[in-house]
Amino acid sequence: MVKLIVGLGNPGPAYDKTRHNAGFWFVDRLASAHACVLREESRFHGRVGTIEAAEPIYLMEPLTFMNRSGLAVAAIARFYKIAPEHVLVVHDELDFEPGVVRIKRDGGHGGHNGLRDIMARLGSGKFMRLRIGIGRPVGPMAVADYVLAAPSAVDRQAIFGAIEKAAGCLPELLAGNVDQAMNRLHV
């Protein structure tokens, strides 16, 4: 069962519209749908809110910048005694085209620095991932420049379509029915 949903991104208006903030976009979507206000919590190094369900579900956007996301995730997980298995990390995924969204139970970081830091700080890679496709750069553009740029209007529409699709699977995820959520998303 998911008890903490962390959207990865970079804080500040310079990054609001960049591909790397797909995780923030997802958490913003959930917060809006559930009338949840995300408030800055310095002890957790991020913005935090709660969705009321059978038990509280915490939403978080780390304010530590992507490469230090683990600092925020570890702080809130330890405070609320949330095991890695009950954490869902939402992040941008270069290996999927815009519009594709997938759930992964655990695994490595795949070169994603935010995931790398979370794994190091939690001491585990056994958290779930919701991977939102952003595609790869075409031509000589560096990956860092690509993820820190805004997507085209067409790609943005596809990314937000994937976010809507994933948000529709939230009831299954909160109930611990990960296989059902995967079946809905992976078609």
UniProtKB/TrEMBL annotation:
Question: Which top class of enzyme applies to this chain?
Answer: hydrolase
Enumerate the residues marked as the site Discriminates between blocked and unblocked aminoacyl-tRNA. Answer: 10
**Which domain of life does this protein belong to?**
Bacteria
Q: Where in the cell is it found?
A: Cytoplasm
Give Gene Ontology CC terms: cytoplasm
Residues the record marks as active site: 20 (proton acceptor)
Reactions catalysed, as given in the entry:
an N-acyl-L-alpha-aminoacyl-tRNA + H2O = an N-acyl-L-amino acid + a tRNA + H(+)
Per its UniProt record, what InterPro entries does this chain match? Pept_tRNA_hydro, Pept_tRNA_hydro_CS, Pept_tRNA_hydro_sf
Molecular function (GO) terms for this protein are:
peptidyl-tRNA hydrolase activity; tRNA binding
Gene3D superfamilies, A to Z: Peptidyl-tRNA hydrolase
GO BP: protein quality control for misfolded or incompletely synthesized proteins; rescue of stalled ribosome
Record-annotated residues binding tRNA? 15, 65, 67, 113
Quick one: signal sequence residues? none
Which HAMAP family does this one have?
Answer: Pept_tRNA_hydro_bact (MF_00083)
Role according to the record: Hydrolyzes ribosome-free peptidyl-tRNAs (with 1 or more amino acids incorporated), which drop off the ribosome during protein synthesis, or as a result of ribosome stalling.
Report the family membership: Belongs to the PTH family.
Q: Describe, as the record does, how this protein assembles with itself and its partners.
A: Monomer.
PANTHER family, from UniProt? PEPTIDYL-TRNA HYDROLASE
What this protein is called in its record is: Peptidyl-tRNA hydrolase
Taxonomic lineage? Bacteria, Pseudomonadati, Pseudomonadota, Gammaproteobacteria, Methylococcales
